[in-house]
Amino acid sequence: MEIINYISIIAMPLVILIIVFKAFEEKVNVFDVFLKGATEGIEISLKIFPTLIGLFVAIGMLRNSGILDFITKVISPVLSYMRFPSEIVPLALLRPISGSASMAIATDIITRNGVDSFIGILASVIMGATETTLYTIAVYTSCVKIKNTRGILIASLAADITGIIVSLLICRVIF
Amino acid sequence: MLNILWPIFIIISIIYAIFSGNIENINKSIFESTESAVNLTLTLLGTTCLWSGIMEVASKTQIIEYLSKVLKPIIKRLFSGLNEKSSENIIMNVIANILGLGNAATPLGLKAMNELQKQNGNKEELSDNMMMLIVLNTASLQIIPTTIIALRSSLGSENPTKIIFPVWISTICAAIVGIIFTKITIKATRK
Fold first, then answer.
1. Complex ipTM value
2. Burial class of residue A156 (count of CB atoms within 10 Å of its CB; 0-12, 13-18, 19+)
3. CA distance A72 to chain B (A)
């Protein structure tokens, strides 16, 4: 545990150190080059701002309207027929849409069921194995003003669903 | 895609909230959401500028060349016809993902998207390479899922790291399915 903590703390500084040291050693004009790149960064991040506003407002509404609880109630009989634990349903629904919301829900599930219980571990594995798909797609496409996304959502959601199902199966086998 | 999802999210949320008496929460969430979008943009502004700068420095050294040699067999299978600059950015994005440097991975990925857009024939449509880059970024490729381990540890787990192995298996399966689906989608939507 301590080693992993240390690795995750040192990773970022180490990457910066290696790059800056190598550049210095190879006699690159490090700061001039850095400024050139950083200036490009301004444009990239401002381009995604409108997307974030739109997305956050819509997702905030979705979370606060209570409709997700409603959907969970409607589909959980179907899922429990497939032996999918109903405690996990809200997490599975929110995970592709919102990173902060799914983190909050995962924390809630883990606290209520116990951090080392089957449900607690399953929620942790799902969080670790999947990403906030919708956010990633929205940010990546809007920074270059793409309109036609050619079904990338379906491919990414297929990956998410696979991640969740495999998490469930592997947790059943191991724990 | 968002032209359909975005209005659906808003319409069903507001209508449901009106009928279930949750409208006050919606009201509150509108202000909270715009505020957190501003906060995230400011954070991203900082990290994007930093990592764009660091990346520019890296591209002037031999580090990228070395990493390219190591990762080339994989990159070659997934992407086609990359120019030097976009392959540099993709490689750094993949490495940042693997190392779990979320703050660096997104800026580097966005930079790669910018480079890929320059090569893109139809500026309004995702190119094949862009699709592959996005799907790699929606599969969480990191070796050590640090955020969730930290959460488990803070909630008093006896063994916070025992999820690592199952996470690897699930991630790999998810990534493989994502890549296969992307390859199929690329073929199906090519004109």
1. 0.86
2. buried
3. 14
Measure CB to CB from residue A34 to each of B5, B53, B157 and give the nearest one: B53
Asked if B155 lies within 8 A of A8 by C-beta distance, the reply is: no
Report residue A19 as tokens: 């790059």
Residue A114 Rama label (left phi>0; alpha psi -120 to 50; beta)? left
Q: How far is CA B5 from the centre of its chain?
A: 19
**Measuring CA to CA, which residue among A141, A134, A65, A61 is closest to residue A99?**
A134
d(CA B13, CA B79): 39
Please enumerate in sequence order all residues whose Cβ is within 8 A of that of A109, keeping only pairs 6 or more positions apart, or say none: A87, A88, A90, A91, A119, A120, A123
- Whether B144 and A7 have beta carbons less than 8 Å apart is answered as yes
Token representation of residue B76: 């070659």
What integer pLDDT is reported at residue A35 of this predicted model?
Answer: 95
Give the pLDDT band of residue B68 (cuts 50, 70, 90).
Answer: confident
Number of H helices, E strands in chain A: 9, 0
For A92-124, the pLDDT digits (tens) are 988 998 887 888 889 989 999 999 999 999 999
Rounded Cα gap, residues B65 and A77, in angstroms: 54
